[in-house]
Specification:
mainly alpha
Length: 130
């Protein structure tokens, strides 16, 4: 019991750096095997999910065929083509939908100024109103 400190666990000397950790001669080989196992598991997982997605797509296609539904990309392309055909003879371009919050810029700037003004002290508000 020469290296141990009194009153502590038996490995206190190792924790304090008294003895060096033994190197495992097969550590590199074990690490390579572990990495290879992880890669293999990842590939199996990807294959499993690809197979499941393929089965789902087959089921979706069956439902589309049964009810005469077109795939989303096809339906969107046809809608865009129909929009172009409708405006083909028109002299003006088609109107674009204005998203919420993208209305008149002056109106928007005014609402921002109102918000800022609420948080300013009285004398500053008077200066900015002029």
């Amino acid at each position: 019991m020469g290296c141990q400190l009194a009153g502590g666990p038996p490995d206190v000397g190792k924790m304090l750096g008294g003895e060096e950790k033994e190197e495992d001669p097969d550590a590199d080989k074990k690490e390579e095997e572990r990495q290879e196992a992880l890669r293999q598991q990842e590939e199996e997982r990807k294959d499993k999910y690809a197979k499941m997605e393929h089965e789902r797509e087959n089921m979706r296609q069956g439902i589309r065929d049964k009810y005469g539904i077109k795939k989303r990309e096809v339906a969107e392309a046809e809608a865009a083509a129909a929009m172009e055909e409708a405006t083909e003879g028109s002299l003006t371009r088609p109107k674009k939908a204005v998203p919420a919050g993208c209305g008149d810029e002056e109106e928007e700037e005014q609402s921002i100024m109102d918000t800022v003004m609420k948080y300013l002290p009285g004398p500053l508000q008077d200066m900015l109103k002029k």
